[in-house]
Amino acid sequence: NEQWGPDYVARYEIFSKAIKAKYPNINLITSAGPFPDGDRFKFLWDKFRALNADSIDEHYYRPPKWFLDNANRYNNYPRTGPKVFAGEYAAHVSVKGRPDRPNNWEAALAEAAFLTGLDRNADVVTMASYAPLFAHVDAWQWSPNLIWFDNLRSFGTPSYYVQKLFSQHTGTDILPITLNGSALNGQQQIYASALRNMKTGEVILKLVNTSTASMVMKINLAGVGRISKSAQSFVLASDDLKTENNLDAPKRLAPVEAKVSIKAAEFDHTLSPQSLTVLRVAYAK
């Protein structure tokens, strides 16, 4: 975990050969170091790509803007060679006078935008996990955390609900998605991914609007085939980026589920300001 340097690479090679000789199906996850860029990061990627490693663990603890700027991070990664495990990440917000980094909507919204980029590059990024997971409100040493608790109660943060929406609404296939004719993610402060779930017969759209205004999106699913006239909608939104949950208000910010009417394969859908929306649209299999 977060190792680096030539000794690590040399010892990995010895362990890898021994393990693979006896257990060839084991997937070994190697480290890219503690940072998502820089000399150590490049050194390890170059070495492990040459060694044909299975997966490489990347970590990102950065301000929300970094996550927005890196939504297209994996678009140009090689499609062969080691896969990526986004093993630790969280958007870090600093507030003057606070000893902690708040688990607020600003952080979670940026994480949601970044995760659409992981969805779109799921052939490269095979796993991802927020970190850390649990912390006691009166005995913590690191923040932010996904879930907080005291001796009797617990609550999920806005980041927890982002994780829940992405983990519960997965697909079996990546669908190509464009905005204004371009596949670039993040145009007009809109971040999006499109998946098809062959098991349930649904298209799953994840749409993130980071702007302070509502956005009317013209969604065209004509290539999918005959679609249902209604969809499930799950929306996580707040006009205030400082919004946080706590023990007394555990669901101040939580997803709202609804039914959405759809008249045709091409339809308009309004995204709330500063929101994550998941749409599940059934189609004829």
Give a quick set of tags describing it.
5 helices; 4-stranded parallel sheet; alpha/beta; 285 residues
Task: Please explain how this structure is put together.
With 285 residues, the protein is of the alpha/beta class. Helix content is 22%, strand content 31%. It has helices at 6-22, 39-50, 64-69, 105-120, 158-168; strands at residues 29-31, 55-62, 83-91, 125-128, 134-136, 147-149, 154-156, 173-174, 190-197, 202-209, 215-220, 227-237, 256-261, 266-271, 275-283. The strands form four sheets. It has a six-stranded antiparallel β-sheet with strand order 8-9-10-15-12-13, with helices on one face. Helix 4 packs parallel to helix 5 (158-168). The model has no long low-confidence stretch (mean pLDDT 96).
What topology does this entry show?
Blueprint lengths: L5 H17 L6 E3 L7 H12 L4 E8 L1 H6 L13 E9 L13 H16 L4 E4 L5 E3 L10 E3 L4 E3 L1 H11 L4 E2 L15 E8 L4 E8 L5 E6 L6 E11 L18 E6 L4 E6 L3 E9 L2
Parallel strand pairs: 1-2, 2-3, 3-4, 5-6
Antiparallel strand pairs: 6-7, 8-9, 9-10, 10-15, 11-14, 12-13, 12-15
Helix pairs in contact: 4-5
